What does this fold into?
Amino acid sequence: MDKWPNLFIVGASKSATGTLYVHLSKVPGICMSTIKEPNYFSVKVHPGDVELVIRDKKQYLSLFNIDKDDKIIGEASPEYLADTEAPKLIHQVSPNAKIIIILRDPVERAYSHYFTFVRQGRIKNSFHDELQLALKNKKNGIKSNFGLLESGLYSEQVKRYLEIFGPENVKILIFDEFIKNQKLTLQEVLDFLGINHSFDDFKVDQYNKFGMARSPLAQKILRNRKMKYMLEKILPQSIRKFGRDKILLKQENKPKMNEEDRTSLVNFYKADVEKLQNIIGQRLPWKNFYKMRIMSQNLVTCGIPIPDDAILRINLAWCDSLEELNSILKRCTKNSIFLDLPLGRIKPPSNNYSLEDLVPIIRSNKLIKYLAVSNVESASDLKKFIELLPKRIIIVPKIESPKAISNIDEITNVLKGEEKIVMLDHDDLFTKLKKNKESESKFKEYIQNLIDYCNKNNVILLRTIGVIFSDEEKRVSQYIK
It folds into this structure.
C-alpha cells in the first residue's frame, strides 16, 4: 500500500518555505522529501515555470526515506498554493494531511519573486517595466510572467485549503514573524503536527541573503533544473547553500523599490488583502496595507461623526475627571479606542489619575484596544502596564527621548501580541535633546535610526508632528526648521 505524505508546506513562494523545510528535516519523527519542491500535485504548472516537476508517482514516492518511527512525512512545494487543482488532488490521497501556509506581504513577495528570475537571466526588463507589462496583461486577461502578480492573490488560495482540509488542519504563518522568531514559530508548528521535540540546540537558519549571479555561467547553473535535481539527491543542504551563496552569487544590497511601483502594487492587492483578513479572522501586520486612521476626541465632544473604521484617540490629559472620560466613552459605540496616558510630563497638561484608576474602565470597555504610555525609556517602564492591563490591550510606548531610541530593541521585545506599535513625539524628543545640550544635527539622526529599526523589525511607527508647547520663540523656530 502506498504511503503518501501527510504534511504539505504549500507556499507562498518567496516566503521562507525553504527555511521551514530545512528546520523540519532535522526533527526526529519527521521525514521530509529528499527534494524540497517536487511539484507533483501542481498539474497546471509547466516545467518552464519552475525548477523541477515530478509527474511519475513511483519517482515521487521514492523521495521519502521513511523510518519506522516517522509520524510526519512532508514536502514543500510553494506552487501548490496558487494551483486551483492541487488541494483537491492532495486531499484525494491524503485527506487528513496537515497544511502549512506562510504568507508574506504580497508587494514585497512580488519584488523578491522578480529578482529570482533576474538572477537566472530569465527576466531582462527593469522591475518597473515588468510590472507595467504585468498590469497591462492582467487587464486583458493574460497571466503575468512566472505568476509575478497572481502568486500574491492569497484570499482564494487560502480559502480553498481551509474549505477542503478544515481550519483545524491548516496552519497559517506570517513571514515576518517567522523570520524574526524562528524558534518560537517552529515550536508552534511542532505542536500543530503533534510532535514532541524541543529545540535546545536551536540554530537560526539565515534566510536567503540578497545576491545577484556573478556571471552568465552562474545564471545558467542557477536555472539548470536537471543539475538542481541531481545535486539535491547527492549533496546536503548546507553544502548546496554554501555553493549558491558564496560561489554563484555576489552578495549586495537589495535595490529599493520606487514608490510609484509600490503604490501600483498596493492598489492591485489592496482589495484581496482585505478579503484575506476577513477569511482568516486576523489583521495582517503588513506595512504596505496597515493604515491606522486615528482621530481626536474633540470630534466626539463637538458632535462630529467619525468613520466606523477610524480609531478614536482620547488624550487623558484633556479629560479633567474620570466622569468626563466615561462621558466620551459612552458616546463612542463602534470605533476602537486609543487611550493616551501622559505620565511624568515636563510640560502641561498632565492627567489627574493613575493607571490603577483606569484599569477597571479598560477592563469593562471592550472597544478600548490601545494604551499609549508616556516617557518610556526602558523595558522596566512597561512592567506595571504589562502586569495590570488585559492581554487584549496593545501597549504603545511613547518614544520621547534619545535614551528611549537607544533602548528601542529592549522596549519592543517586551511588547506582547502580533501588533507592535511605538509612538514618536517629535517635540518632546527635540526638547530633551536641547535639555541634554546635544547638537541639533542629532535630531534627524535619532529619528532616522528609529525609522530604520521599525522598518527592519516590522514595528508600526506612529509619529506626532507639530504639537508644540513653548514660549521660547527661538527654540520653536529651530524645531520647525
